[in-house]
Amino acid sequence: MTLNLPKDKLVEMYRKMLEIRFFEEKVFELYAQNLVPGTIHLYAGEEAVAVGVCSNLRRDDYITSTHRGHGHCIAKGADLKRTMAEILGKKTGYCKGKGGSMHIADFSIGMLGATAVVGAGIPIAVGAGLSIKLRHTDQVAACFFGDGASNQGTFHEGINMASIWKLPVLFICENNLYAMGTRQSIAMAIENVADRAAAYGIPGVVVDGNDVLTVYEAARKAVERARKGEGPTLIECKTYRHKGHSRIDPAKYRPKEEVEAWLAKDPIKRFKEKLLHANILGETEIQQIEKEVLGKIEEAVKFAMESPLPSPEEALEDVYA
Amino acid sequence: MRKIAYREALKEALREEMRRDSRVFLLGEDIGRYWGGAFKVTKGLAEEFGDERVRDTPISESAIIGAAVGAAITGMRPVAEIMFGDLTALAMDQIANQAAKIRYMFGGQAKCPIVVRTPFGAGVNIAAHHSQSLEAWFMHVPGLYVAAPSTPYDAKGLLKTAIRSDNPVVFCEHKLLYPLEGEVPEEEYTIPFGVADVKREGKDVTVVATLFMVHKALNAAEKLEEEGISVEVVDPRTLTPLDKQAIIKSVKKTGRIVIVTEDCRTAGVSAEIAAVVAEEAIDYLDAPIKRVAEPDTPIPFSPPLEQYVIPDEKAIIKAVKEVV
């Protein structure tokens, strides 16, 4: 994939990927210090997917997300401080501490929330697409989900519905080869989730999910098609999570050679090399960006750590509108 | 006042709200121009509002409700029809985990104004997958409202309120009620949620009944009157929010209560109402709380079997006599 995008755009994409990576590393570190209640599902390793897709979206476009959702939030433009505060269960978090790591939302930027029921966000994104169609706007909705979710009924029901009604929806499958600890080959008899698109009469494409420019280009075409009213696209991004499924998972079910091969394909490392090679960024600029991003993450952590916890009785608020 | 059928009252509510608010649209299986809904509630609406706003869907209950949720949180006001109440089971994640919780778990950022219309109830020999009364499932989910109108008047007024509500509403209808006629004014009105209606005043026994059981309770009350027993029939109209005060007020007057619902007895609607009375009004009771409900079985097919499990007037009369 050639680097034919404006420099600003490329640098912004690199910066976002780095934000996600450093953010997740920090969450892991805070978790190890027992500062994160509950569990965490880290997005590290899959940054090219969220950033490649969201770099095509406007602020008023929608996304739906999953239990592994921090990266989607950040890529769509969520505030790092409020995201971190939510993960720490603080009152200043996006959901005032009611959602946590698996349920971050920012409706002001079209981030319609992360659902922790695998596959449940798919028909919701279809509904956002239906709403767009009924309101006659040119927005789009992008729906992130994993390979595991593609075995849920909601995947098939949702894509079929979006297809018959030609809804402006991008179905983004992040195929990281494992549904929790279950290898894809145990759960489906086909190699590519994207092949399922044929059953619903929509385009299905397989892309290298660790190459942000490839993801960007596939999403660009899908967004263009959606905005023109031509209907949905299923994009399968082959990728890999650096850590286990959740905090308790050492991921011993993954062969060492497989892990090493995928770590060598680290999306951030690859993008950085490309940017350097093409003289779009120099070492100094790279270091400067890293420093700035780290500073932003530290600010977010400071904000979250210093924020108050919610008052216990706030548990009773927000049940009804 | 003019009389119209329950199904016509529902249709009027849908039509009026669709004319009033362009964000309101309908989706469901066979609700469009070819069928007009399995119970004909939406018949004629596609002709007036078009196929976009009266939208036939594939048989995909989960995606029907999911699509309604996604549309609702992005500014629309969908009214989804699930053809039979039993089939809400297929959409339960979207109703109970998504629609009901989106506002809460996202810290109050979102509103999810969906209405899920669906018919419950037995009595037409269509067996275990088309006859259940599952209202209690939804009462158990914080974040949902549950409406259960028993008359055409209540059906219209409550449906209009449901559509205007910023919260998800499971709107429980009853398949035997659709042809039932009753007085409905021509002029605009709505009925607030959480306000019970005393369908018949009395002084000896309170009968709290819901949906089709309201009519059986009224018939039973008529017969008991001839025997000198005065029965007050209270219809909660919405199960969430539940008008506890109206029930307690009636119990204070009569000192006796019989609760009549069509759902299974265990952990059913009647259990919740009994608990409210036991917790908040036990000192006013002169007799134990009585419940008339279905036994804990699936709904059987063959007419004598089915009739055996559905609460009838005789059972209501017997229960009332046991407490006076």
Beta content of chain A comes to 5-15%
Question: What's the CATH H-level homologous superfamily of the largest domain in chain B?
Answer: Thiamin diphosphate (ThDP)-binding fold, Pyr/PP domains
* Principal-axes shape call of chain A: globular
| Most extensive chain interface and residues per partner | A-B, 44 and 42 residues
Task: List the SSEs and their pairings.
The complex is a heterodimer of chains A (321) and B (324).
Chain A lengths: L6 H26 L14 H8 L7 E4 L4 H7 L3 H8 L23 E4 L6 H15 L5 E6 L6 H12 L4 E7 L2 E2 L2 E2 H4 L16 E5 L3 H16 L5 E6 L17 H9 L2 H11 L5 H24 L15
Chain B lengths: L2 E3 H15 L3 E5 L16 H5 L4 E3 L4 H12 L4 E5 L10 H8 L2 H4 L9 E6 L14 H5 L5 E3 L4 H13 L4 E6 L6 E3 L13 E4 L4 E5 L2 H15 L4 E5 L2 E3 L3 H11 L2 E8 L4 H12 L9 E5 L8 H7 L3 H11 L1
Parallel strand pairs in B: 2-3, 2-4, 4-5, 5-7, 6-7, 10-11, 10-13, 13-14
Antiparallel strand pairs in B: 1-8, 6-12, 9-11
Helix pairs in contact in B: 1-7, 3-4, 8-12, 9-10
